[in-house]
Structures are given as C-alpha cells and as structure tokens.
C-alpha cells in the first residue's frame, strides 16, 4: 500500500519490485541506444528503436505525449543539456556528445534513466566531462541511505564534482535550473533534488522512497537557455554538457538502483 511521508510517496517492497521491472525496460532501451549510436545515425532512428524496445516489453514510453513532448526519448547533442527532441534530420557526427534520457511505464510504475554517449573519436575533454558527471551521480546514489537528509545527496554530488575539478584541471559547471525528483506512480514527483547544496537539509530519507538522481555538468557555465521549440535546453555559453541518471530506491539494505542493467 502506498503511504505518504511529508508529501513523498512511500512504496512497499513489492511496489519497488514493480518499479524495478519498469527500470529493466529502461536499461534495455538505453543499452541499445549506446550500441547503435554512431556517426551517420540520426537521433530520430534512436527514438524509433527505443519506442519499439519499450513497447515490445509491454510497457509504454513515459515521455511520449508528456505535456506534449513528441518523442520517446530526449536526445541532447553537444551544447544541448536536456529535453532535446530527436529527429531524422539530426544525424550524429564523429566527435559528437549525446545524452539520451529514457522513461517507461510498466503496470503503472515509472522508470527513468539517462546516459551520455561519445560518438566516434571523442575529445579527451568530452570523455572527462561524461566521466565526471557519471561519478557524481554514483556519489549521489551512495548517499541515498535511510536516515540521511535529502540534501546529503546534493552535497555528495557537488563534492564529487569538485574532486573532478581538481583531478581534471577544469571547473565544471553544475546546471542549477534542473535536478532530480521523486518517482513512482508518476514520473515527476516530490521531492525536487538539487545537484548542489549544503548537507543536512530537507526531508529525512525513509525506506520505500524512490528518487531519480540526475546530475548535469557542463564545460563552462551553470546557466541554461530554452530554445524556441519549448523543450530543448542548451548551455548559455555554448559549451558542451553531459547528463547521467538512475532511478534509485531507498531501502534498509542500502540504495537499490532500479534502472541498473540486468547484468
């Protein structure tokens, strides 16, 4: 039975297992995106493959039709941060950086995850950017434990970014306008999770909560602009961006990554 904790949906173990089933569908789709994304392939083709994969699993693409969004994935290329609209006319080229965000609904439960894919001979700067973004996502996941406060996750993400800054000799921009969110019977739920901030603030994490942890980093600014299509978000200074995301359950045994690949 669903319960509420300060406005945050609390799931039973069986309900989290249902979310894991949805998460596996998302993981399969993202694995195929990673395998098929290459120079000469369009983001529209990736979108069609993702939708077919999701529907073949008996699930529904959660993005398609969401507030009018026209596709089953978000494909954000180079300076695009999030919510890029895939198109047959957008053909990936050698050296591109593409973040693919994917969601699926299975038996009423949502899964949501994102990966950043390097196309062909990617630059060292882009590789490090993607690795730094994935590393801070993993740091956030590690902090998602029973008894912690919500912004302990935020602090873990920001601290990881600063470690990458020092290691890579780059000051990565932490996108401030977007962040993680609760997930379960809806794709976007309370609480909103900033990707930076002081620890010890916000609601206490309880077993049964599920949160999408999704940092977005740039090679420059932390500021973004939305394009005239009403969806695509780009860096304000034109620098490249990366985006990694997992849906994570808070359990008494520790964080459970619901969108992790099966293997």
Automatic annotation (TrEMBL):
Official protein name in the record: Methionine aminopeptidase
GO molecular function terms listed in the Swiss-Prot or TrEMBL record: initiator methionyl aminopeptidase activity
Record flagged with keyword Hydrolase: yes
Record-listed E.C. numbers: 3.4.11.18
Pfam families noted in UniProt: Peptidase_M24
Binding annotation for a divalent metal cation 2: 112, 181, 214, 245
Cofactor(s) required for function per UniProt: Co(2+); Zn(2+); Mn(2+); Fe(2+)
Residue sites binding substrate per the record: 83, 188
InterPro entries attached to this UniProt entry: Creatinase/aminopeptidase-like (IPR036005), Pept_M24 (IPR000994), Pept_M24_MAP (IPR001714), Pept_M24A_MAP1 (IPR002467)
Chain sites annotated for binding a divalent metal cation 1: 101, 112, 245
Residue intervals of the Peptidase M24 domain: 17-252
The protein's role, per its UniProt record: Removes the N-terminal methionine from nascent proteins. The N-terminal methionine is often cleaved when the second residue in the primary sequence is small and uncharged (Met-Ala-, Cys, Gly, Pro, Ser, Thr, or Val). Requires deformylation of the N(alpha)-formylated initiator methionine before it can be hydrolyzed.
NCBIfam families for this protein: met_pdase_I
Catalytic activity: Release of N-terminal amino acids, preferentially methionine, from peptides and arylamides
Subunit record text: Monomer.
Top-rank lineage group of the source organism: Bacteria
Keyword Manganese annotated: no
